[in-house]
Every structure is written in structure tokens, then in C-alpha cells.
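Following up on my earlier thread - several people asked me to post the actual chain instead of describing it. Fair enough. Here it is, all 139 residues.
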Amino acid sequence: MTHHFYETCAYFTAARYMRTAEAAADKFFKPTGMRPAYSYLMMALEDQHPLTISELAENLGYERSSSYRMAQKLERQGYLKMYLNGKSATVDLLPASGPFLETANRCLEAWGHFTTDKLGADKAAMTRLLTTNDEKLRR
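Reply from S.P.:
Thanks for posting it. Predicted structure:
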């Protein structure tokens, strides 16, 4: 029996792509000193702040506990401040986040050029499909 999940299983192919993309993205975001997820969390706050941990988790598609742990690390770095209110936490950028965000945005731009060069016209279609299918699975 030969399994066909290598090419037909949405879970397997998405996870395999994610592992490959994550390894490549790690190289592009290395100047930040952190994994790409930390940059995306900071850039989400750059777009709109303050946000609650729950809002960040929902916007980024991360688990609430993962968002909280990342925010804690970023707070220890002096980039943001968490304000606890019972079981809720609100996160806001601090002035020291500026240089990190400048670097993160440069990394994102370089990553975008790399993926456009590698994926060509497939990039926009793939991103649209991933976004649409993510929304379907979340419902």
C-alpha cells in the first residue's frame, strides 16, 4: 500500500510547507534577534495598539498562551508593557520598540521580496487560498 498524503493531505502538505517556510523566515528575521513570530506580534501592535492578548491571539492565529508568553519576553526586552486586569492582559508598545520595529519591517520587506522571487505568481494565489481556507476551518 502506498500512501498519497504526501500530495493530497491538506494537513501534511501545509505542515511541511510551514516547516520549510519557517526555516527560511528564521534566516531573514535573524537581525531582530528573535523568531519571526515575535516580529509579527510587534507589527500587529504597530498597526493597532493597545490590544488585549486575546485580540492579538485572534488576529495572528496564535494560541492565547503563546501570545502571552511572547508578550512576556518582549516586555522583558523593554519593547512593550503588559497591563494586567484580572485574567485579561492589555499590551502596548513602549518607545524602545522603535528600533526593533524598524528592523522587523526591513526583515519583512526582504522576506516578501524573497518569497515573491521564489514563488512568483503562485504567491498571491496561495496566500489567498490559505487565508480563505483558514477562515473555513476556524468556523
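The helical segments are 5-8, 10-28, 36-47, 53-60, 64-76, 97-119, 122-138. That should answer part of your original question.
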